[in-house]
Amino acid sequence: MLFNKFFASVLLAVICASTGLAVPWPSSAKLATHRVREIKRGLTIESFHPASKFETFGEGIDHPFSRRAESSLSDSAKAFAASKMGVDESEIGVRSSFEGEVASHAYLQQVHDGIPFANAVANVAFNKGNKVVSFGTSFVKPNKIASSSPTVLLEDAITSAEQTLDGKFNGHPTSLEFLALEDGSAALTHVIQIENDQTGAWFEAFVDAHSAKVLSVTDFVTDATFRVLPINEELLTQGFQDLADPQDLSASPIGWLSTPSSGNNAISFKGDVSQTTTPSSSPDDFIYVQDPNQEPTVQINVDAARTNTFYIVNSVHDFTYKYGFTEAAFNFQQDNFGKGGLGNDRVTISVQDSAGTNNADFATPPDGQSGRMRMFLWTFTSPQRDGALENDIVVHENTHGVTNRMTGGGTGRCLQMTEAGGMGEGWSDAMADWTEKNSSAVADYVLGQYVIDDPAGIRSHPYSTSSTVNPLRYSDLRTLKEVHDIGEVWANMLHNVYATLVGAHGWSATARTDPSGSEGNVVHLHLFIDALALQPCNPTFLDARDAWIQADVNRFGGTNRCLLWQAFASRGLGVNAARHQDDFTVPADC
């Protein structure tokens, strides 16, 4: 989802301090472990995730199976996690794993009586030398744990979830999982997916298997030749181009199209999945000229919207694929060609969706279920404007799918807390920023100008290296509570990281198709994608920063370490930053 600043003018929107701490925890401490969601009028649900501990190990450390030539990734990860946490391997299960270009990753779950925990998880990464380079964990030691035999029937749990969440069970396979609670206990829960077709809500409900109460939810929805707007251009006014065969066959080996506006990576439609755009001429030409003087709903403009979103989503698929968001890394494809991960999950794109206006959203369920993008009309101009024709909005929404899948091993559960959800918004803005750079100049970046016809866009400040233009820094999290506001802090940090890397290494015009270069924008996207797989479930700013720095060690031997520290520290995320208090220092050797 996109909005913060703009709607602020339209809709006015603790962990207790320990006596043993020299500096009290700020009220913002709950940002990392809690998220309150208003489900409907009069009902809010507060979700909890145990605090993650994340460590990085530079060039790597040995693990118990280091010298075993035949040990599997899963076995090595379990052995390391067990030794690190002092638990028996029988208490650890493997949720997923994959081998990337420079690191291999395993995603683990705490297990009791053979039943996994939903929110007590861990992740281990190994470099190509078979050494552990990072470890994250939110495992718990419950003071009380519920019986592993449910006393509430699944049918009754489904009814409770449907009534509480105003939706219907969507038929996705249910599961039994323990849920670590804030009071230190662990509840047994039925895990059930609930959808509301009218509102677009899509929840994963955790229903107490002994009381039928909904204890927590995962909200899968984050509330933002072709004639198209080229992906490196943000605004409709910059002009359409006719692009012939824009697919990258190394990422999309059977191309983009199988039927009109439908293919292996995406399908774009209005109203119903059968309502796609047919070629304007034979065999596969989609030349639809948007008419800005007519309403978006006239046929030529609907066709332009479907064509443009289909192009952008496929483009994002292809360039993120080349940087590591592959089948094995839980991407979105109907057919995974036997390369790992689960298929049958291309992105569905509903343009001019009737469920809302003045926004956009993306739902990211687990690997194997389609990502769902909904693009809405914007009503602040006459004629109205279509978010499907503003590329930064489409890229922003699509990136929610990338970050939610790659963080935590494809579950869609690991950017749910307030701070992590805020970074999710920030990554989405940062990816849009990256796609629209067309030279080595790092200009200030503004999101969402076209849809509201305002050069200031929909964020509180442009993203900028100037602290005058954009003063946001880490300590602002002490007062920010809304995910889009928090996201602006993270996106601006990444804008500064990008500027630093491009300033040091230059800029590549072919970065989207050639990830082998050494230029700053190439380095930036490699670290962007690599760090997602390294960081723990529901990371903090500190965790994400450390993941970027470790990613640089894994891929580039730490060449950019000081550059990264300088960029993060310039916005308060220096070596000694903690508890949302700024620090501007860098390591002594930098």
From TrEMBL:
<dbReference type="Pfam" id="PF07504">
    <property type="entry name" value="FTP"/>
</dbReference>
<dbReference type="Pfam" id="PF02128">
    <property type="entry name" value="Peptidase_M36"/>
</dbReference>
<dbReference type="GO" id="GO:0005615">
    <property type="term" value="C:extracellular space"/>
</dbReference>
<keyword id="KW-0479">Metal-binding</keyword>
<feature type="active site">
    <location>
        <position position="397"/>
    </location>
</feature>
<dbReference type="GO" id="GO:0006508">
    <property type="term" value="P:proteolysis"/>
</dbReference>
<dbReference type="InterPro" id="IPR001842">
    <property type="entry name" value="Peptidase_M36"/>
</dbReference>
<dbReference type="InterPro" id="IPR050371">
    <property type="entry name" value="Fungal_virulence_M36"/>
</dbReference>
<keyword id="KW-0732">Signal</keyword>
<dbReference type="GO" id="GO:0004222">
    <property type="term" value="F:metalloendopeptidase activity"/>
</dbReference>
<comment type="similarity">
    <text>Belongs to the peptidase M36 family.</text>
</comment>
<feature type="domain" description="FTP">
    <location>
        <begin position="104"/>
        <end position="139"/>
    </location>
</feature>
<keyword id="KW-0865">Zymogen</keyword>
<keyword id="KW-0482">Metalloprotease</keyword>
<keyword id="KW-0378">Hydrolase</keyword>
<protein>
    <recommendedName>
        <fullName>Extracellular metalloproteinase</fullName>
        <ecNumber>3.4.24.-</ecNumber>
    </recommendedName>
</protein>
<keyword id="KW-0964">Secreted</keyword>
<dbReference type="InterPro" id="IPR027268">
    <property type="entry name" value="Peptidase_M4/M1_CTD_sf"/>
</dbReference>
<keyword id="KW-0862">Zinc</keyword>
<keyword id="KW-0645">Protease</keyword>
<feature type="binding site">
    <location>
        <position position="425"/>
    </location>
    <ligand>
        <name>Zn(2+)</name>
    </ligand>
</feature>
<feature type="signal peptide">
    <location>
        <begin position="1"/>
        <end position="22"/>
    </location>
</feature>
<dbReference type="GO" id="GO:0008270">
    <property type="term" value="F:zinc ion binding"/>
</dbReference>
<dbReference type="InterPro" id="IPR011096">
    <property type="entry name" value="FTP_domain"/>
</dbReference>
<feature type="binding site">
    <location>
        <position position="396"/>
    </location>
    <ligand>
        <name>Zn(2+)</name>
    </ligand>
</feature>
<feature type="binding site">
    <location>
        <position position="400"/>
    </location>
    <ligand>
        <name>Zn(2+)</name>
    </ligand>
</feature>
<feature type="binding site">
    <location>
        <position position="223"/>
    </location>
    <ligand>
        <name>Zn(2+)</name>
    </ligand>
</feature>
